[in-house]
Amino acid sequence: MALRRCWRFSGVVPRLLWSRTVQPGASVPGVQSSVSSFVNTLPGCINSELLLRRFSSEPQGADVSYEQLKQLLASRKAVVIDVREPWELREYGTIPGSINVPLGQVNTALQLGPEEFKEKYGGEMPQQTDNIVFSCLAGIRSKKALDTATSLGYKDAQHYPGGWQDWSTHEHQK
What we know:
The protein is of the alpha/beta class. The chain has nine helices and four strands. 25% of the residues are buried.
């Protein structure tokens, strides 16, 4: 009986997490208790944190620091995609080695053929198994690009939440 209740609830979790990630202990609008405390009250259910993590669309460790990004660029172990508009790159500057794919084009760009991607954006198209780091001005648009890439099946996608502002601050401190 307890297993049946747990199984029924596991069908609810993906619907709750369809449009957003609910962290263990976070409140769900319209529900008095939190998701994890509800799962924990069901006898025989698996650890709620594992259950929630399983249905989360956000990869673990999705944020990259300035130091990590520098290392990834130096070792060429990641494709860095800047999702700002071209005028922003001209106005503010770019992270060396990054490819500019404006946010509005990310979904389409990641579904192009490799030759077409290279011709349009001037860089190698990342494969679904490649490490991709998205960047923007301050981390908002790069998070949206990360979500898009994850929904398209990219397994090792991350974003640089500090964006160009953080990058230029660190670079000018040298």
